[in-house]
Amino acid sequence: xxxxRSDIHNSATPVLCQSCQSRHQGICSxxxxxxxxxxxxxxxxxxxxxxxxxxxxxEPITSYGNVLRGVVKLSKVLEDGxxxxxxxxxxxxxxxxxxxxxxxxTAEAASDVDLCLVSKEAMEALVRENPAxxxxxxxxxxxxxxxxxxxxVTLGRxxxxxxxxxxxxLIASHIDPTGEVTTFDLPLSRADIGDFxxxxxxxxxxxxxxxxxxxxxxxxxxxxxxxxxLARLRLRCG
Length: 238
Fold this sequence. Notes:
Elements: E1 2-3, H1 15-18, H2 21-25, H3 33-40, E2 43-48, E3 53-55, E4 63-69, E5 71-77, E6 83-90, E7 94-95, E8 106-109, E9 113-119, H4 120-129, H5 131-157, H6 160-175, E10 182-185, H7 190-197, H8 201-213, E11 218-220, E12 224-227, H9 230-235
Helix pairs in contact: 4-5, 6-8, 7-8
InterPro entries: cNMP-bd_dom, cNMP-bd_dom_sf, Env_Response_Regulators, HTH_CRP, RmlC-like_jellyroll, Tscrpt_reg_HTH_Crp-type_CS, WH-like_DNA-bd_sf, WH_DNA-bd_sf
Protein name: Crp/Fnr family transcriptional regulator
Keywords: DNA-binding, Transcription, Transcription regulation
């Protein structure tokens, strides 16, 4: 695992931070170059393959992770083994519940994932000292709350066709919210998508085939999806 460089002049932004999406769009955008340099002494870049567990339910939290690339799957597992996907995180989201002693969900790499890990002590100290960073984290938390409420509507009121379209729109709009043509690999298996949407695998596959037949999406090799027109896909979300 490679540590973030901190051997540069104190007035400069650390090299690895300059092209980082979290630096420009996420929580680190609230930090000055000097604060980034100080924080970089407590960070490290790590890579996880798809399927790796990043954080277990009830596991003590010792660090937080900025998602730099990839998709993180959040899930809950009941005592009898039943499993429910409860959310997805994308760059530049923060993995880990701030100021909590232990995790309330299991976090798993849904695709290959790159994280910038920050020690719990360093992050929480910086939040206490930096109102702008605290504000940025609050905005992210509120956005995730809004998305969770929207997803409750999706699960409770939308048809199977609208659920599948909403899932694809969720992925596409997070990966490239301004692109005219969005291309991505599905970060979840058909079984996980069905679990996330409350549908059977067969229903998920049938609805995707219908979207493909209508020209709303293109699918190659079962998981590679192209969305020629996000607005058209959004119309199918209900």
